[in-house]
Amino acid sequence: MVSLAPYVLKRPWLSRILKPVASWYVGASGYRKLGLRYDDLMEEERESVQIALKRLSSKESYDRIYRIRRAVQCSYQHKLLPKSEWTKPEEDVSYLQHIIDQVEAEIAEKDALDTASVIKKH
Amino acid sequence: MISRSSLARNAQKAACRSWAAQPLQRRAFAAAANTGAFESSDVSGLKVASRDAHGPTTKLAIVAKAGTRYQPLPGLAVGLEEFAFKNTQRRSALRITRESELLGGQLNASHTREAVVLQASFLREDLPYFAELLAEVVSSTKYTTHEFHEDVERVLHHKQATFNADVNALALDNAHAVAFHAGLGAPLYPTPSTPYQKYLNEEYIASYADVVYTKPNIALVAEGAPSQDLSKWVGQFFKDVPSASQSGQSLKVEASKYYGGEQRTSHTGGNAVVIAFPGSEVSNAKPEIAVLAALLGGQSSIKWSSGYSLLAKATAGTAGLSVTTSNLAYSDAGLLAIQLSGPAASVRKGAEATVKALESIANGSVSKEDVAKAVANAKFNVLDSAQQPDAALHLAGSGIVNTGSPYDIAGSVKAIEAVTADALKTTAKALLDGKATVSTVGDLFVLPYAEEIGLRV
Q1: Which among A96, A104, A106 is the top mutation candidate for probing chain B, defined by the most B β-carbons within 10 Å of its own β-carbon?
Q2: Which has the higher per-residue pLDDT, A53 or B387?
Q3: Helix (H) or strand (E) holding B122
Q4: Cβ–Cβ of B94/A113 closer than 8 Å?
Q5: Both ends of chain A: CA-CA distance in Å?
């Protein structure tokens, strides 16, 4: 996946300009109004995410399920949560992405080692 | 038809081969002159011992004073063993495995009551790689939560199950618990009924590692590595190993004390009895015990005969019984253990025969010849264990971490040679008069109490 984010984040002036736009966009995408965090939206149908979910602590795992069930309930009823229960921007922290990255790095390393070719130097 | 040129080529090859083989041969002669003792040295605070038989392979081991005896909470030594060769700050567990596989090396971690041993066996020329690896394992393992849950705990359950299905191991473990209570008496694996989740997690293991993986507490022992190369690589790679624990805690070491007593455990997996007495420590302060162990014996050292040992002769007619006697030596205590296993009725007979054999030694009714044979056998056992590569590494390493230098094998052999029949008599008498340790596992309806076979507990 190609992303412009690293390019933008490297340039403080650019990220300062784009920050309000980004915040508006995140708000408009609506998941915070259902009480979710961004990492709750990760698609689970991947090996790496499945492994990463198992590595969450029991508290994090419980809270995640709770948020998702609450959001599903809201979705059934075609309602949003009351404004006081929306996810605040400072609460919307990443708790899963770094574990997924770590698992993906492990899988990539395994693939690389599985297909390594040995060059004898002596 | 064979052309002249091909013949010439073959001759050339043969000449080449014999020339190439020469250095190896010369090495073999040098090896014969080697005394087989470890040379120890001190490389920036880390004690290193090596001996070199100039073979093509090398074994390198770290012996840490971190066995079950020293663990502050049950299971930490096992946890430390399982976390060996897992993810480190510099590379992943998978990479460690694959790389050592590519080099044809073998990695192995184990723990005993006194030590945790991390061992690598590899081709001689790969010494730098494996020295670096062992240093990395000791100084920068990550002790991650997910590895604890995914690997360490899973393996621990299997090991626990295997251990607890083995009546011999269980009986010996119980015998240690009865004989030494805490310290040496701590079980090798936490029993299934131990609420180990309370005591064992990656943080506790990491802090235990911080305490035990320090330069004064570990020894690096090498078999088949030249000492100059070794000290060069060790100086380079073991710089990061701390010389004192970062948390400032230190290892709690308590002197062992022998208590004795009896423990009976019912088990459906077989029958085993361990009859034990206070034994001799590794430094072999009581050489009579080693001779006594050889004299009691139980296993024949020659084919098609029950051999000279008293227990082998006494139990020759008992069906399915297996008896072994050994002096389990530790740094400051020992346990002379007679292990019997087999069908319950046979084990009962064997236990009775054991006490009778001990009494006959105490009476002095053992022939001079048998004593001479036992002395020779005890000598062989000591020397043989000092020559077996793995056992020798463990022995040298634990000698260094406990006393500062490898154990003096020649000295203990001399002491064994000096053992007389009278000394054996008094020792056996003292053992029978003192408190015995009896641990029984299996069919408790048939297996005897210590009192019944005439032992004081």
Answers
A1: A106
A2: A53
A3: strand B116-123
A4: yes
A5: 41
pLDDT at B35: 53
How big is the A-B interface in CB pairs under 8 Å?
17
pLDDT band, residue B196 (cuts 50/70/90):
confident
B89 touches chain A (CB under 8 A): no
* Distance from the A34 Cα atom to the nearest Cα atom in chain B, whole angstroms: 31
Cα separations in angstroms, B150 against A25, B156, B157, B235, B256:
39, 11, 12, 35, 36
Mean pLDDT of chain A: 92
Measure CB to CB from residue B146 to each of A55, A110, A118 and give the nearest one.
A55
Write out chain B residues lying below 8 Å of A109, CB-based. 92, 94-95
Rounded to whole angstroms, the Cα distance separating B204 from B206 reads: 5
The answer, yes or no, to whether residue B108 has pLDDT greater than 60, is: yes
Amino acid at B329: A
Q: Under an 8 A CB cutoff, do A109 and B95 touch?
A: yes
Kindly report, residue by residue over B339-353, the tens digit of the pLDDT.
999 999 999 999 999
Residues of chain A contacting residue B154, judged by C-beta atoms under 8 Å apart:
none
Cα B38 from Cα B49, distance rounded (Å): 6
- B456 close to A (CB below 8 A): no
**CB B155 within 8 Å of CB B258:** no
- Amino acid identity, residue B257? K
Task: Look at A109 and B145 and tell me if their CB atoms are within 8 Å.
Answer: no
Residue environment code for B338-360, b if the CB has 16+ CB neighbours within 10 A, otherwise e:
bbbbbbbbbbbbbbbbbbebbee
At B431, is the pLDDT very low, low, confident or very high (cuts 50, 70, 90)? very high
Sequence letter at residue B456: R
Asked if B333 contacts B253 with a C-beta cutoff of 8 angstroms, the reply is no
